[in-house]
Write a structure and sequence with these properties.
It is a single chain. The protein is an alpha/beta fold and 340 residues long. It is 53% helix and 7% strand.
């Protein structure tokens, strides 16, 4: 930035949010610098191409983007940002003298999160920036929690004779079953993300039991039956809905509709719905894949067994959904087959 003296980002600690300010007028850049430089790490660009270059290099947390610029408009920049997996999540706030309702609508349709009209009001700029950075932090926290759950699920695989493909398959089965049952896409996706934690409690089961290739003795099986409660303790109390859901699944997926399951002997609708869904998904995958102690059952054998357990092991209403999802289940089986 010739004669602009706008590169102030090095004066702010690295943990502070980064904002890219894009405008072809140096006066506007200086004004936004004056408004925001005390609180954020700022980067500046005077053209769309420069904005794209800086975004790729610095990955800002937020972009304030002018609309009317020569060569490449702010709308064009936003379009390119939203087409890239690396930058599509970065919130864009348009800052423009264009104040028609159609201008704002176009910006939102392109993926912008907000629209500030010039001449800017410092208090409004600060408030909008703070609000959208808070939303970014919230989304990041959700992503982090999801990654923790996925990594804990991965950790449990190292203590089990089941494969990582089992976790993937049964999670997809659970999602499809949830959708067919009538849950929303959002609810089904949460079950999909929480399901990998269903056997996290096996971390606490001795290897000589967990990895035994043959049938367990009655004493060994009693020890194995402790893993749902161990999972419940590992996941503990949390204000995260996803972790709470994972905990519910971990502790309830071995309960049975008729009350003969474990660890608490729950029956019917007292068993959480997510636990009932994962119970079918888990058993279906166990039946249709090779284990050290059994061959893989055919699709017909597995479904016949599940039908026979309707009202005993499984929720009858969920069993009624099985014929409707079998084609999708078969696609999942083929896509995520275990390696020979």
């Amino acid at each position: 930035m010739t004669n602009c003296k706008l590169s102030t980002h090095s004066k702010i600690p690295s943990g502070i949010p980064k904002i890219l300010v894009v405008d072809d007028e140096a006066t506007n850049l200086r004004l936004l610098k004056h408004i925001l430089s005390d609180d954020y790490r700022l980067f500046f660009a005077k053209s769309g191409l420069e904005a794209l270059r800086i975004t790729q290099k610095e990955e800002p947390n937020l972009i304030l983007l002018d609309v009317m610029m020569p060569d490449m408009s702010g709308y064009d920049v936003c379009t390119q940002l939203k087409q890239s997996d690396k930058t599509k999540h970065i919130p864009v706030i348009f800052v423009s003298a264009l104040n028609e309702e159609s201008d704002e609508e176009k910006g939102f349709n392109l993926g912008a999160v907000d629209y500030i009209t010039k001449p800017v009001v410092p208090a409004i700029v600060k408030a909008r920036v703070k609000t959208h950075l808070s939303l970014v932090n919230s989304d990041e926290l959700k992503r982090t929690r999801l990654q923790v759950i996925q990594r804990l699920g991965k950790a449990s695989e190292y203590k089990d004779n089941e494969t990582g493909k089992h976790v993937i398959r049964m999670s997809f089965y659970a999602k499809e079953l949830a959708l067919e049952y009538g849950l929303s896409e959002f609810q089904a996706e949460k079950i999909f993300n929480a399901a990998p934690m269903h056997d996290i409690g096996k971390i606490g089961i001795p290897d000589q039991i967990l990895l035994k290739p043959g049938k367990l003795t009655p004493e060994e099986f009693e020890e194995m039956k402790k893993h749902p409660q161990i999972g419940e303790e590992i996941l503990g109390e949390s204000d995260s809905e996803l972790i709470a859901l994972a905990k519910s699944i971990a502790v309830s997926h071995h309960e049975k509709w008729n009350g003969t399951g474990y660890p608490y002997g729950l029956s019917g609708n007292d068993i959480p719905l997510e636990g009932r869904i994962v119970a079918i998904a888990d058993v279906f995958d166990a039946l249709t894949t090779i284990r050290p102690y059994k061959r893989a059952w055919t699709l017909e054998e597995a479904t016949d067994y599940i039908y026979s357990e309707s009202g005993k092991h499984f929720d009858p209403r969920l069993v009624e959904c099985i014929p409707e999802v079998l084609d999708v289940f078969l696609d999942i089986m083929n896509k995520w087959r275990d390696e020979a």
